[in-house]
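quick one before i forget lol
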Amino acid sequence: MKMTTEEAFVKTLQRHGIQHAFGIIGSAMMPISDIFPKAGITFWDCAHEGSGGFMADGYTRATGKMSMMIAQNGPGITNFVTAVKTAYWNHTPLLLVTPQAANKTIGQGGFQEMEQMNLFADCVAYQEEVRDPSRIAETLNRVIIQAKRASAPAQINVPRDFWTQVIDIEIPEIVEFERPNGGEEAIAKAAELLSSAKFPVILNGAGVVLAKGGIEASKVLAEKLDAPVCVGYQHNDAFPGNHPLFAGPLGYNGSKAGMELISKADVVLCLGTRLNPFSTLPGYGIDYWPQDAKIIQVDINPDRIGLTKKVTVGIVGDAAKVAKSLTEKLADTAGDTDRDARKAMIAQTKSAWAQELTSMNEEQDDPGTTWNERARAAKPDWMSPRMAWRAIQQALPVEAIISSDIGNNCAIGNAYPAFNEGRKYLAPGLFGPCGYGLPAIVGAKIGQPDVPVVGFAGDGAFGIAVNELTAIGRGEWPAVTQIVFRNYQWGAEKRNSTLWFEDNFVGTELDEEVSYAGIAKACGLEGVVARTQEELTAALAKAIEDQMKHGKTTLIEAMINQELGEPFRRDAMKKPVAVAGIDPADMREQTV
């Protein structure tokens, strides 16, 4: 049938059920955005495209439904790069629409021209450019399907002079696909290893959250074996936190109980995880990865299997399907060896860690350094980061969705949140962008309006997203709650400076005259300052009530001392040695 190219584009979006688009309005995409309202597509015009991309990531991770990023060609599109790469490592299926400069001017260095395909080549799982107006629906359909198959962003590049053309076209059908359930031989061998294991441990990753029924399938398998279940870094929602077999997150500032238990494993089932290095780095001085254990790795992407750890059995498949198959193939006696002793050890190890975590108030200094001691002395009445996290736990609803930014104080909190279902914990992932916490939780709230949401960010990272306060207060935007840990420093970088650069703080200090709560008020939102644990618990409880019952967005500045947690990467840093030396006298004046 005859239609315009923009009608074909939007009809294809409708067929795939894509209802939300995030970005900033631009002339290159106005022919399609003009018909969004009629199509049932909401365009969320944020303050910066990068934040719009994080909103799309948050929406899709909280709902499991695809969303779309779109903006003006050139500078609008380049602002999406960080968000798209973040979504790639978060395994988030998103549609990236990049309107392109007109065909007749490409290569002339025209207004807002950019080579947008090369720009995103390393950030998406699939990309394609529309070659002819009549192929616009075909191309879009294929890009969306590829994003779903790869569980990652995919890009369609559209020259802007292809809009407003009349074409004769048929909207393509959606080709459904079934996720692989693992090879028979691999499943059989893995089931044999698990059946004979004396101390089996399961490590759940993002794939368990993304797979339909993945958490439940892993729970059934864990209960059959009475195996403790750890989760990967920033995947605290990959197993129910109230389950007696849940051992907590591995990796940076994770669960010491999980680390101690997995260190005893003779067989580890790595379910739905690419075993990223950050999830297996030593923590609390424990090098816990079991070097002699048999490793079974399950991942939907065969390229990830065996990439970071030596693997005994590799299984390419959907985490839920593989877990079900393994449960069916287990021997009747699977898990029986030392079952009661293992269950007792799990409970005892978890209890000891819970008590230790509750008693942890202070961050430790490395030998030869004194920054944390000095920070406590400088502000003796201020909350420490861990005191703030315990105060937050008192008021955070169990059903809440939370987001976390990158940074020292958010990372200190990695061991604290636990969840009883998936799609509850939105962290920036292994690309590690600052400015993720606020926009991600806004996207989550758009997708789950009846669920309380709380975002977390350090004050350095929050400064990158603070401009979104100018956008999210409008009537059509949902209410959220955002906590900013306020200590006036870039904490992770400052900890590096204390350890390896003799307190030479270059670029680590923030402006103490800035009030984020004041900025929130200036934007028509609620702004609150909390200085004690009691004030923080009360402020969060009220903010969530205002969010859910009165439609109010609240920003809480949690004032904390300048204690600093573990460095992110002890393995990546070392103390520099001066050889030639640097002399300020060597600097010459520039001539005009």
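fyi The mean pLDDT is 95.
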